[in-house]
Specification:
Length: 164
């Protein structure tokens, strides 16, 4: 077995370095395709309108004005069934882009809430999956957490019970 390994390795190295096939062919380099824009191509519905493009443009407007994720996710929940899978994918990419800009602000707000006295005790009292309706005597915390849940964000805890 050792003997075959000693001859097989140089042979494989030779094959990989020299390649296979006809040496007369010239190598050609294909130019890279132009990068795609975030705007989907306009697709016409049977009545001639660009309904899917309009939905995507409406989403872009909502994303630009939205302050909370629930505004964007509510629009997606309502309009996602109207578009084909390609445009739906692009809408989810736009949502992900929104989350990239929005989640750090949500994290900062959450850290500020955690610094208030008694908040962490109230969260520790909840069991996973967290039901924020069980939070008593702190409507500000309860409403903020419920609003984030509507925006499809979840409260999670690490193994040492650090919330994020």
């Amino acid at each position: 077995m050792k003997r075959y390994g000693c001859t097989l390795i140089p042979f494989l190295a030779f094959v990989l370095l020299t390649g296979c096939g006809n040496a007369d062919k010239q190598l050609t380099v294909k130019p890279q395709p132009a990068p795609e824009s975030n705007v989907p191509p306009a697709t016409s519905s049977p009545n001639g309108t660009n309904q899917e493009a309009d939905v995507f443009q409406q989403l872009q407007v909502i994303i630009s004005k939205a302050k909370e994720a629930r505004e964007v996710t509510a629009f997606l929940d309502e309009h996602l069934k109207q578009v084909d899978s390609k445009n739906a994918d692009q809408m989810f990419v736009a949502l992900e882009s929104f989350y990239e800009g929005n989640v750090p602000a949500v994290d900062d707000n959450f850290r500020n809430l955690l610094q208030q006295p008694g908040v962490t005790k109230k969260l520790y009292a909840l069991e996973y999956p967290y039901d924020f309706n069980k939070i008593q005597n702190d409507d500000n915390l309860k409403q903020w957490l419920l609003a984030q849940t509507v925006g499809k964000l979840r409260l999670m805890a690490t193994s040492d019970m650090s919330f994020y």
